[in-house]
């Protein structure tokens, strides 16, 4: 009975290590042999995670965003008012992306299945921000704004941050860009 728990724990550890490797160095240049050597496991172990390198990259990308979402939501759960919840959410997204190297972001953008996962998570994040804004409006903490428009504005900026356009134009790293976005958004919609 302890075998499935161990197998699940080992699987999570491998995905965590794989995500850390990809975030630090990207993934396009690696072969399955390279990945196995870097993770100190066999290729057959990697094949228990996914059937190909492409599927492994997709699975690692999903794992990254799932883990990031859990961490971001934990930050949000610790806040009581709407302004702080939005700030915690956006700064949490920035913190989750902070370890992502330029190479990882370039590889993510160049690999359509991984890019689609990122884009899906951006849409989910925009919906979440819209919910947080609507909650703040309902509670009287924010003026009556069009929550969907504000969330779309946030989503557009999130895409620019992800593509490193904000860093290239302003010099802000991702985490700082998300903090600035949170400050501008929450300041602009305060009651």
Automatic annotation (TrEMBL):
GO-annotated molecular function: DNA-binding transcription factor activity; transcription cis-regulatory region binding
Positions of transmembrane segments: none
PROSITE patterns recorded: HTH_TETR_2
Record domain HTH tetR-type: where: 8-68
A Pfam family the protein falls into: TetR_N
Origin: domain of life: Bacteria
InterPro entries: Homeodomain-like_sf, HTH-type_TetR-like_transc_reg, HTH_TetR, Tet_transcr_reg_TetR-rel_C_sf
UniProt xrefs under PANTHER family: HTH-TYPE TRANSCRIPTIONAL REGULATOR BETI, HTH-TYPE TRANSCRIPTIONAL REGULATOR RUTR
Protein's UniProt name: Transcriptional regulator, tetR family
Organism: Mycolicibacterium chubuense (strain NBB4) (Mycobacterium chubuense)
């Amino acid at each position: 009975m302890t075998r499935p728990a161990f197998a699940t724990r080992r699987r999570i550890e491998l995905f965590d290590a794989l995500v850390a490797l990809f975030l630090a160095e990207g993934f396009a240049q690696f072969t399955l042999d390279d990945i196995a050597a870097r993770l100190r496991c066999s290729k057959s172990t990697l094949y228990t995670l996914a059937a190909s390198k492409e599927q492994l990259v997709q699975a690692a990308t999903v794992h990254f965003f799932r883990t990031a979402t859990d961490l971001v939501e934990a930050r949000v759960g610790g806040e009581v008012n709407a302004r702080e919840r939005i700030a915690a959410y956006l700064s949490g997204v920035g913190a989750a992306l902070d370890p992502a190297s330029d190479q990882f972001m370039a590889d993510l953008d160049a690999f359509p299945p991984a890019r689609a996962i990122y884009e899906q998570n951006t849409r989910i994040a925009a919906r979440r921000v819209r919910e947080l804004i609507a909650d703040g409006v309902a509670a009287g903490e924010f003026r009556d704004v069009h929550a969907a428009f504000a969330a779309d504005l946030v989503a557009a900026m999130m895409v620019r941050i992800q593509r490193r356009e904000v860093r290239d134009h302003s010099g802000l790293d991702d985490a700082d860009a998300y903090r600035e976005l949170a400050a501008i958004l929450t300041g602009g919609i305060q009651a």
